[in-house]
Amino acid sequence: MFEVEDLLINSFDNAEFDLPTKTENEIYDPVIGTAYAELIVLPNEKTAYSVKNTSL
């Protein structure tokens, strides 16, 4: 999980949006009136589906 999260954050940073970036578990004190990006990754439950599953 951490590798995927790191890749997403690095991709955002490499896109050069010219915004300060805050990520989870990082201390960041934004300046009032200044734009910044806050990146979080929301976990999702793993659900296995099969061809027989008709509730989709």
Description:
The structure is a single chain. The protein is an alpha+beta fold. The protein has a domain at 2-39. The protein has 1 helix and 2 strands. It has one helix at residues 2-14, and strands at residues 21-23, 37-39. The protein has a two-stranded parallel sheet. The protein starts with a helix and ends in a 17-residue tail after the last strand. 0% of the residues are buried. The model has no long low-confidence stretch (mean pLDDT 80).
Question: Could you write a compact summary of the structure shown?
Answer:
The chain has 56 residues and is α+β, with helices and mostly antiparallel strands. Helix content is 23%, strand content 11%.
Q: Mind sketching the topology for me?
A:
Blueprint: H1 2-14, E1 21-23, E2 37-39
Shape: elongated
- Helix content class: 10-25%
Average pLDDT level:
80
Oligomer: single chain
Order of helices and strands: HEE
The description of the largest β-sheet is:
2 strands, parallel
Give the count of helical stretches: 1
Which regions contain 5 or more consecutive residues with pLDDT less than 50? none
Count every beta strand, where a strand is a DSSP E run of 2 or more residues: 2
End-to-end gap: 26 Å
Radius of gyration: 17 Å
Strand order of the largest sheet: 1-2
Strand content: 5-15%
Structural class: alpha+beta
Q: What characteristics describe this protein?
A:
two-stranded parallel ribbon, 23% helix, alpha+beta, 56 residues, elongated, 11% strand
